[in-house]
Amino acid sequence: MKLEQYLHVIIVASTGLMFPPGSQVPPLQLENSTQDLFYYVRPVIETNDLWDQIEKILRPTKPVVFKVRGAVEFRKALAHIVSGIEQSSTASRK
Are 66 and 42 in contact (CB under 8 A)? Predict the structure, then answer.
């Protein structure tokens, strides 16, 4: 009997975030995430907004990061995500 493997897709959509000083916010630690797809969609509010701690938390998952400026870039990011899911789903069925 063949066991099916499921594709997990995690999409984080958020503006940059700073936690209060002294907060302990360790990076994610995942088990068996080789079949998972991680995406981080983040609107850019300012040109030099380098204060995003969410990206540091997600870094171990090696997410595809989209820093979007406006609706057109958001739609392009969404199309890329859907395409990546389709490609991974097709590859996992072979």
Answer: yes
